[in-house]
Amino acid sequence: MSTEQKKEGSLLKKCIRNNGFQTIIGSLLCIIIGLFIGYIVLLVINPQGAGKAITAILKNFLYYPSAAAAKKYFGTTLVKASALLMCSLSVLFAWKVGLFNIGAAGQYVIGAGACLYCGLKFGMPWYGCLFAAMIAAALVGAISGALKAYFNVNEVISCIMLNWIGLYVVNMLLSNVKEQTTPYTRPLSSVNKSALLPNIGLDKLFSKNEFVTIGLLLAVVAAIAIWILLEKTKFGYELKATGLNKNAAKYCGMREKTNIILTMMIAGGLAGLGAGIFYLTGIEQWMVQQTSVPAMGFNGIAAAFLGGSNPIGAIFSSYFIQHITSGGTYVDKTMYCSQISDLISAFIIYLCGFVFFFKVRLNRYLDKRDEKKGGAK
Amino acid sequence: MLLLIQYTLIFASVLILVALGGCFSEHSGVINIGLEGIMVIGALGGALTMRYLTAGMPAFVVILLVVLASVISGMIFSLLLGVAAIKFNADQTLVGTALNLLGPAIAVVLVRAVNTAESVDNVSSTVVYGQAKKAFLVNMGSFEFNWFMLIALLILIASYIVLYKTRFGLRLCACGEHPQAADSVGINVYKMRYAGVLISGALGGLGGLVYITAGVSEWKFENGVAGFGFLALAVMIFGQWRPINIGLTALLFGMFRALSNVYMGFDALVALKLPSTIYNMLPYIISLIVLVFVSKKSRAPKAEGVPYDKGLR
């Protein structure tokens, strides 16, 4: 073996040994298998249009032949993806501290309620509404955190209960600011323009899609900030230590109870901001007769784990999940329904559970191979 | 008042079935957060069976077929959790959550496909089963007796006996407390855990069926089961993983859930002039409060949620 070949071989080996690289491979496998299962389901429902339907899902905004329209809908997908990114940050941040924040969905609902109410009822400007969304959702997160820290209540169950309570409260609250004849809240664009997030020229990039706002930038900045907080600060280190072993953290003089509550507060705040940067664009109005919690928070779970619970990875995975969710609306409605995308993302979450096992197996295989090589020498 | 009792009993039956399902799974050492999804799939199996049953079958056969359909679909679905958690050491909370999302998604996609295949304009996710449902009901005066109330009671008694009086039940509990110790005396931990998960799938699926037939004669699958799987988990925790306590707790929670259906019939409650939303929230608020009081001295099986590792001591 020449030295050059050897070098190349060791580089590849280094890559394949790298944890981040393995995570990416694992996530890609999840996506491929998830899409494949989706395709099979489509085949089972109706074999004729399955190929076309799965391409429609993957193409999403490219469905429109004109470049201008495609660009516009690309913008819309990005707006939704930014909200999803905030939710996934919320989930992954708590996950790093050993908590499963399934309440991101409910915190998102509370955030939506708070920002719309402040904007419509009190005529507050956008930054006020955004702040209100963050604080309200953070408080709800803090409830779950406090129950966990002081009363040992499983955060998954308390979060679910709070999801439903939050949904009913917000429905009740926003009934005060709804249109007279429809169950939808009054549009921000006609009641209080100052509550709409500023575009700062971003809309021009997407064929004048007025929903593209600074929200996009905010979400990316939040992802980077969370990455810095977790990886580069003492506070982040403490939080992760608390997640790994609560008792050890306590022994080292960390305030483990405060850390748990703070984590859930930050997680809640992130989800609330997500709702803020979505509803304050005016893209959608709240329907006050909703009987189920919006899927955004649950899709956030998919995005968080698909991104290898890494904030930077979450940027890409959130976009992907939103891409196929939006793409679902373009399938042929005479045969399929748009929820096929939900099915695919649910399967992707399920498959993410196997990634850890996959890594262990891969490393064991690599070890064995190295051992054999060593023996041959 | 009679209506309140009727609704309380039927909702309590749902909670008993599902909470017992969770109880079996957790005693074997697997946390089953996915009960909500399992309920939806069980409901789906039952609802589709009811829809396609030919009219005029004897009530007994109808009950048997529908129950079997939902039990089997629940069990198959729960295998997704079983395989991931037991064979592949996956994170049980994560997989359970995936099940919760997967259940409604599968149900909506399937029901819509069935509806659309029948007529192109029908894009709803609703299954109508008004006719077949009558088989479950026996009218006793103004009280509508539902066979599921009896089934739930029988299963409750059976669970008590199985868990505490049989070899299987005691072994199951051993696997949730200290699997290594159980293994050392020759119990196959993996098999026991599969058994626990499958039982939870069966009971969860049946619970889902009972839930959608309680009071209504069609179900819109987009709504899932509205957090009932999680209420059942709260019931299980409040019942400290013991069947009899679970039964009593389920009655209490069932009553709060029933209130939102029938509070209009009580002059005292109507006079309070509370918005109906308050009654909808009530079960969730109560369970949150209840959890605060009981979680501290929780008697959860010690090894639940931990994948079994033969090498550990």
Keywords:
heterodimer; A: 377 residues; mainly alpha; ABC transporter involved in vitamin B12 uptake, BtuC; 17 helices; 0% strand; B: 313 residues; two-stranded antiparallel ribbon; 13 helices; 71% helix
Number of distinct helices of chain A: 17
The biggest beta sheet of chain A reads: none
Cα shape of chain A: globular
CATH classification class of chain B: Mainly Alpha
Q: Taking Cα atoms only, what radius of gyration of chain B do you get, to the nearest Å?
A: 20 Å
Low-confidence parts of chain B lasting 5 or more residues at pLDDT below 50? none
Largest interface: A-B, 48 and 50 residues
**Count of discrete domains of chain A:** 1
The low-confidence parts of chain A are none
Span between termini of chain A: 14 Å
Q: How many strands of chain B?
A: 4
Strand proportion of chain B, as a percent range, falls in under 5%
Report how far apart the termini of chain B are.
56 Å
Order of helices and strands of chain A: HHHHHHHHHHHHHHHHH
Tell me the β content of chain A. under 5%
Mean pLDDT of chain B: 85
> What structural class do helix, strand and pairing data of chain A support?
mainly alpha
